[in-house]
Write a structure and sequence with these properties.
The protein is an alpha+beta fold. It contains five helices and six strands, in the order αααββββαββα. A hairpin with a 3-residue loop joins β5 and β6. The longest helix is centred in the C-terminal third of the chain and has 15 residues.
Length: about 150
């Protein structure tokens, strides 16, 4: 693995940086000039997640290999959950969508095809065999595990 990735990994282990711009500045200070898109690819490659630290701040970190999901998510992160025919939409606090999507994706339940996360919104695609009511119920059950 490249030296840049190893420096990024050490920054994630520290768990103090909450934006990709902060990560970019730290990497540039370590003599690794990068763009936001490079950081985004590197974060995906490392499996980095956004999590809530013990002070309530959203930070980038590496997932704990012993966790099956985002155990450090507070109940206030999810604002609203709605469904239509084949999609469940989850609204979160800013920066919270990736944590919620990762939690759902790691469960690999048959009701869902997958998720797409923005900053504060998660789209959960339902399988053909799952109707809106079933999908909504399954999402709510998974979200209750996070708390």
């Amino acid at each position: 693995m490249s030296d840049r990735i190893e420096v990024l990994r050490s920054l994630l282990v520290e768990g103090k940086l909450s934006t990709q711009d902060e990560l970019r500045m730290k990497l540039e200070k370590a003599r690794f000039p990068v763009t936001q898109s490079t950081i985004s690819r590197d974060l995906r490659k490392l499996g980095a997640v956004r999590a809530v630290d013990h002070e309530g701040n959203t930070v980038y970190r590496l997932p704990d290999p012993t966790e099956r999901g985002s155990a450090s998510v507070s109940p206030e992160i999810v604002r609203n959950v709605q469904a239509n025919d084949n999609l469940v939409v989850i609204h979160t606090v800013p920066g919270g969508a990736h944590m919620v999507a990762r939690h759902i994706d790691m469960r690999r339940t048959p009701e869902f095809l997958g998720t797409i996360a923005g900053d504060d919104t998660v789209f959960v695609a339902l399988s053909l065999k799952t109707n809106a009511a079933q999908g909504l119920k399954a999402v709510r059950e998974l979200l209750s595990e996070m708390i």
